[in-house]
Amino acid sequence: MKVAIGSDHAGFHLKKEIIVMLEYKGYEVLDCGCFSPDSVDYPDIAEAVAEEVLKDQCPGIVICGTGIGISMAANKIPGIRAALCGEPFSARMAREHNDANILAMGARIIGTGLAIEVVKAFLDTSFAGERHQLRVDKIREIERKHTR
Ligand code: RB5
């Protein structure tokens, strides 16, 4: 399975650790940057990951210092449901109930070990559908109503 991933400078080192784990587990990783610890703007990375997620219909991972800015930016793109998660339960629920297609994390909040567990929980969980589908459809309807 393909996974698109991206971070700003604050998430650069955590992103590298996550890529090692993903490749070890056999995922095809599409690294959307950044490619050095030099300062970049998280909205650019959020947009690059979101475009890959929509194009390839694959899950995405975005990381910035807190995970807040990069998730806000990703959620501006129609069709993206980015969930900021700091522990595995939220990551599982984000997939099972909300059909999140992007996981956001804060590298200045979460340690590497916990982040890896969060990623595994996110990627190993499927959307449950049924009553949750109606609610996700309502999110899309709000998006459609408010997109000019
Ligand atoms: C960059 O210093 C920082 O603002 C960014 O990584 C992120 O935390 C924003 O939400």
Topology record:
Layout lengths: L1 E6 L4 H13 L3 E4 L10 H15 L3 E5 L3 H7 L7 E3 L3 H9 L5 E5 L5 H12 L7 H15 L3
Helix pairs in contact: 1-5, 2-3, 4-5
Bound molecules: D-ribose.
Description:
It is a single chain. Helix content is 48%, strand content 16%. With 148 residues, it is an alpha/beta fold. The radius of gyration is 14 Å and the shape is globular. The mean pLDDT is 98. It is built from six helices and five strands, in the order E-H-E-H-E-H-E-H-E-H-H. Helix 1 links the parallel strand 1 (2-7) and strand 2. The chain has a single domain (2-146), classed as Ribose 5-phosphate Isomerase B, Chain: A (3-Layer(aba) Sandwich). The protein has a five-stranded parallel β-sheet, with helices on both faces. The site of D-ribose has 8 residues, from helix 3.
Concise structural overview:
The protein is an alpha/beta fold. Helices cover 48% and strands 16% of the residues.
Question: Any descriptors?
Answer:
148 residues, alpha/beta, Ribose 5-phosphate Isomerase B, Chain: A, 5-stranded parallel beta sheet, 6 helices, binds D-ribose
